[in-house]
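Weekly modeling sync, notes
Attendees: AB, CL, MP (scribe)

Item 1: holo prediction request
CL wants a bound-state model with adenosine-5'-triphosphate before deciding which constructs to order. AB pointed out that an apo prediction alone won't tell us much about the pocket. Agreed to run with the ligand included and paste results into these notes for async review.

Input as submitted:
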Amino acid sequence: MLSVEELQAGYGHSQVLFDISFEVAKGECVTLMGRNGMGKTTSIKTIMGLVPARGGKVTISGHPMTGQPPERVARLGVGLVPEGRQIFSTLTVRENLVATAANRQKYADGWTLERVYELFPRMRERAEQNAGTLSGGEQQMLAIGRALMTNPWLLILDEATEGLAPVIRAEIWDVIGKLRAAGQSILLVDKNLAVLKRLADRHYIIEKGRSVWSGNGADLDRDYEQVQGYVGI
Ligand SMILES: Nc1ncnc2c1ncn2[C@@H]1O[C@H](COP(=O)(O)OP(=O)(O)OP(=O)(O)O)[C@@H](O)[C@H]1O
């Protein structure tokens, strides 16, 4: 499981994370919600070792991982679909998918090109096309497929549907629902309360670099107005 305790981080002189705590257990789908600029992406980057932690603790599958480099975090089976996708635009779709493929946990039913193509038939159609020529939604599908090809026990999606057309968003949420139903652990960073409420087991809210609320679906129903206030819709 992933456990984050009282995490602190920042950039230069500005501290951005003051006290972030949350957990994701195996098989869970958990959300990190909050308005723009509250520290969601910074939390993910700090967990991934892309931003140095200034305090607190990150533990992954029992290993103390605070401040460890990204490749060590990846080796422990954490796959990130970053904000802005960051696919290799001069490689083809297929090359993107195989470039970082790995099955470190030696899953018998690991992800293959074929399985990614089944999940995203459009990737099969565009297999030999340069990734830079894909639409935004297709690039997001590719970024998810690429992360799955590393066979992560935990898939982290940072603003997976940001800036996409509603029909493409729905397609991506649908895929995330399928992954969840298949037992994939998922951490979703997003603001889309209505969809997340349906998809996830538990939720955390971040406000100005602090974890300020957490709960399951029933808690969310009870505190809906308060949570809406935090998320800003
Ligand atoms: N590379 C950076 N250098 C300096 N400040 C940064 C950097 N990246 C983010 N920040 C600042 O840190 C704060 C938190 O940003 P962060 O991206 O973590 O928020 P967020 O909750 O993910 O919001 P968004 O939904 O807009 O991505 C913001 O004030 C932002 O301006």
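Recorded for review: The chain has a mean pLDDT of 94.
Action items: CL to compare against the apo run; MP to circulate these notes.
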